[in-house]
Structure formats: C-alpha cells, structure tokens
Model the fold of this input.
Amino acid sequence: MYKKFFLIFIIAVALFSFALVFYLTDPSFNTESLKKTLTVDNLESFDSISSPLEITGQAKGFWFSEGIFMISVFNSNGDLLAHEPAIAENSDSELVPFRSVLEFSDPGTEEGNIVFKPSDISLFKETEVEIPIIFRAFQEGEGIENMEAVARSWIEENSLTFCWDGTDLFLLESREVECEGFEFCYEYEYSFDSLHAGYGARREQILTQVITPHKLIVSVAGGRVVKAVTDGIFDEMTGEFTEE
Done:
C-alpha cells in the first residue's frame, strides 16, 4: 500500500518537474511575456528624459518583494546613473500601482536605458525589461545651453591656465559644430585674463606680473569636454603646446 502511494508521489513529482522545465524553456515565454506584466504610464521608447525622473505605472504582484522592485538608469556605455526602488501603492487589483523617482547627474552619453527588474525572476527566462531613452540635455535646441554649464565648470576646475591665475571668465560665443563620433557637439569661446604671462601651471617659471588676456575655445560632446585650447596654441587638457 505504502509502495503504491510512494510510486504515485514519485510520478507526480516527475510530471510536475517536467511541466515546470517545459514552462520555463518554452520559447514563447520570453521578454515579451514579462513586458505584458508591466505597464509604465509616462514613459515610452526613445522618450527624452531629465533629472529628476518620476515614473509611475502598474505591475503584477510578483514584481514586488516587501512592496518594492528596482528601477535603474544606465547611459549607453553601461554606466549606472541611478538605482531606486519602485514603491507599491495600496491596491486590491491584479496590477499593483507603483511610483519611483530617480535622480542623476551628467549622463555622459546622448542615449541610455531605463531598466525594470522584478523581484521574483524565477518565472521568466529574461530577468528585466529595458526601455531605451534619450537624455534631454542632448536634444537639439536645448543642449547648447545646458552644456555651457559643463564647459564653464570644467574650465573653473580643470583648465591649467585659468586655474593657475585666471580671472574674469566671460562667454563670447557658442555654436554647434561637428565632432567625430557624436551626434551633438557644441563649441564655446571664452575670454579671460591671467595675472601673469604664460600658459598652464607655471610653478618653476620666472613670471612676469602683467595682466595677459586670453581666448579659450572649449568643445563639449557626450556630456563632457573633449577639447580645450587657449589662444590656439596651448592644449588645456594635456598641458602641452599644439603643433599648429
């Protein structure tokens, strides 16, 4: 009698295991199925975003563990910019409302992804849902103003000549230019004065104390400074004189 029940139990376990393996390896049960369990109210593919980013939507219960699941922002280089919980709101419906706020600084690239990762990943072959996005700072017409702040900050913190003894930094002109490998590239021309003659960090030089005017051209692409040359002859990024 016991042997009969034991045999039935073994067969039931085997059938269940076979069904589970088939279920999890079924080609039709893929990322698209996971996407159907998540609805995002205010974000679609290739939408433009900026920080802070509020995301609302609904998801099935398995997405949550202790009332949360995680949402991340990545740039196109795979760098993590933000990682915050989506918090469930009280609901009796099958789809649970959620809300998340993500804050990030300079993305460094024009495009990126928002990644939604359910807490219970055992039910699916794919473990996350990605929505491609564009960072608003890089959109044409908006980027040239936003990126000027990147250029100015870089000069004040990194320009060898200006950081040594520069004063009176003033933007003369900004323009959109072409930079290889970037969709959007902006060039900013500044004027500033140095308290001494020369370029760069002049620690071991005998300096002439004379107010010296300079012009500095800075190129910004991908959210960062890619070129900075003073008076057309001194590379502020390498600390060397150009060959031109």
Summary: Helices lie at 2-25, 31-35, 143-158, 160-165.
